[in-house]
Specification:
With 359 residues, this protein is an all-alpha fold. Helices cover 87% and strands 0% of the residues. The protein contains 12 helices and no strands. Helix 3 runs antiparallel to helix 4. The longest helix is centred in the middle third of the chain and has 40 residues.
Length: 359
């Protein structure tokens, strides 16, 4: 019986890795596609948009998952349902707060005003899909979580490449945002359907549970929220500074090369973190510290192995990739890629300590 269970877990992991890697590959292809077909200034605008989305998702998320994930990984169905509903309702506060902040940002002339509505709805739909993927991951449904991640990362990219390659629509930022928000919303709807059973209120005291715990969870998550928010801002601030000092074209060069290097994080995260993190947290709560340390050691070992393989492969293919893109600006600044590759490896190693915060 245990052999059958292990076999199922193995195949689930293989399917999950394949789905997530295809999502990462889609992003890689998208970066190549826009670098080859758009000028560096347009790529720079896309880089600014990506930064706003990344920062906005962290702000909206408020790092509630740091507090809730460990409970989700070790609770029964009804408790998980309460936690998920409470968390989703808490996020509504941040959806409302985001609107004036985003409005003020656009009034600073960082981007064209006509992108405002698209980016606001992208923030909401991208955040919802991210949280749903986490819910599925920590309820030990890795294939469904990977399916949502695949749709989130790959579906809109596949569509935009197809419709622009066949000249159904023109390749420009406005059309990219239009396709992205359409399919991001579609993915969020699918995700909500997949967790629909958790969204049903099971007991009369559910509302009281939400009222009593929402503020408490927000307070507990606040230190993680501040840390994560400053961290993501520090990771993306360089693009805004570059735009101010050297212009949007420089942002495009930096964004493209750093994005290629960031594929390393996606590969390692999807190949290692999403499997071992939920099991480590559950193991700590159900079996104790020693069991947690055993899984954490495996997590560290596999992260290092996956990272080193990724760095070697990336170093081999970067020059042919840049020759394919055919833009001299990128070739002349290849050192940015190697610096960001090293930075991403260090960032991955920091996850060894981040895991402890969940327990």
């Amino acid at each position: 019986m245990q052999d059958i269970k292990d076999s199922i877990n193995f195949y689930e992991r293989i399917i999950s890795v394949i789905l997530r890697l295809f999502g990462a590959l889609a992003k890689f292809v998208f970066f190549l596609y826009i670098a080859k077909n758009l000028n560096t200034s347009e790529v720079g605008e896309i880089g600014i948009i990506f930064s706003i989305i990344l920062i906005g998702i962290v702000f909206i998320g408020a790092e509630l998952h740091y507090i809730n994930s460990r409970d989700i990984a070790s609770s029964n169905f009804e408790e998980i349902s309460k936690i998920i509903v409470m968390q989703l309702k808490s996020h509504i506060i941040f959806y409302l707060l985001t609107l004036p902040i985003l409005f003020f940002l656009f009034k600073s002339n960082i981007l064209n005003d006509r992108y405002f509505v698209y980016i606001y709805f992208l923030l909401i739909s991208e955040h919802i899909t991210q949280e749903i993927a986490r819910f599925l991951q920590f309820t030990f449904k890795p294939v469904l979580a990977s399916f949502i991640i695949f749709l989130r990362n790959a579906l809109w990219i596949i569509v935009i490449i197809l419709v622009t390659t066949f000249q159904i629509i023109e390749l420009n930022i406005f059309n990219i945002l239009g396709v992205w928000v359409t399919f991001s919303t579609f993915t969020a709807a699918i995700g909500l359907f997949l967790i629909r059973e958790y969204l049903i209120l099971h007991k009369n005291d559910h509302a009281n549970f939400l009222y009593k715990n929402m503020i408490s969870i927000l307070k507990k998550a606040f230190p993680f929220f501040i840390t994560a928010l400053f961290f993501i801002i520090s990771q993306n601030l360089d693009r805004f500074v570059l735009n101010k000092i050297m212009g949007i074209s420089s942002v495009g060069i930096f964004f493209f090369l750093s994005s290629l290097a960031s594929v390393l994080i996606l590969v390692v995260t999807y190949g290692v973190n999403v499997f071992y993190a939920p099991h480590a947290i559950s193991s700590f709560k159900n079996s104790g510290y020693e069991s947690y340390i055993t899984i954490k050691k495996t997590f560290i070992r596999q992260t290092i192995i996956f990272s080193l393989i990724g760095i070697i492969v990336a170093s081999i293919i970067i020059n042919p990739v840049l020759l394919f893109v055919g833009q001299d600006e990128y070739i002349e600044n290849t050192y940015i890629f190697y610096l960001m590759l090293l930075s991403n490896f260090i960032l991955l190693c920091s996850d060894f300590f981040n895991l402890d915060m969940y327990v």
